[in-house]
Amino acid sequence: METRARTAEETRERILSAACEAIAEVGFEKIRMKMVAERAGVSTALLHYHFDTREKLFTEAMTHSFATSAGLEDDTTTAPAAVVLARIVHSLLPTDPELRQDWRLWQELWVRSLRDEKTRLFAVDLYAQLHAWVGGAIEQGVASGAFRSADVDRLSTLVLALSDGYGIRLMLGDPTVNVDDVLAAIWRPVAEELGLPPEFPGI
After folding, report:
1. Residues in domain HTH tetR-type (predicted)?
2. Which of 13, 69, 88, 141 could make an SS bond with 146 (beta carbons 3.0 to 4.6 A apart)?
3. Which residues contact 107 (CB under 8 A, 6 or more apart)?
4. Is 15 within 8 Å of 47 (Cβ atoms)?
5. pLDDT at 171
6. Are 167 and 173 in contact (CB under 8 A)?
7. Could you report the per-residue pLDDT of 72-120, keeping only the tens digit for each?
8. Rounded mean pLDDT, 138-152
9. CA-CA distance, 162 to 200, in Å (whole number)?
10. Phi, psi at 177, each rounded to 5°
């Protein structure tokens, strides 16, 4: 029984990973269930067993992408609070191929949110989770005494806003910005608020 459940979960994960890759590559509007099934190495019938509509597959793929990129390393409980927060900031930006794929998914989500109310509500909920992720790291740092007391809600909103703005420019290949400068620009106001050194920590 456990083996069957584990196999089903592994199949589901494979499908979601394939969906993330396909959506990022060609866009949601061009995605067909057969395309995802072939990429995942499963039958179309099995894909429909797990995800009966394209819309459900899209939202589950976004959730999967978020959960993967928002997974903190195992040593976050022992890492300095500033390093934990810096890792989160780094992961909010398209700083490697995997995160660039995540950003393509977010861009698809933004476009769909303009046309579909359910997608818009889903996007708002994902942003709330991002906000809680950033805020949780700040709260832990304040509680441990590593950070100066701050308005956590406002600072979390600022981090997300700066990450979105700079992230778009990085995705566009804007020659006037680079990853190091972006990390520094986001970190400076955060560090000032929390009483930390202005240099982005080594992560």
Report:
1. 9-69
2. 141
3. 171
4. yes
5. 95
6. no
7. 444 456 789 999 999 999 999 999 998 999 999 999 999 999 989 999 9
8. 96
9. 15
10. -130, 150
**Directed axis angle between helix 81-91 and helix 179-194, to 10°?**
140
Which of 22, 99, 39, 46 has its CA nearest to residue 68? 99
Report pTM: 0.84
Going along the chain from its start, the domains and CATH numbers come out as: 1-53 (1.10.10.60), 70-203 (1.10.357.10)
The model's pLDDT over 21-72, given as tens digits with 9 standing for 90+, comes to 888 888 888 888 898 999 989 999 998 888 888 888 888 888 888 887 665 4
CA separation for the pair 48, 99 (Å, rounded): 27
Burial 28-49, CB ≥16 within 10 A → b, else e: beebebebbbebbebeeebbee
97, amino acid identity? P
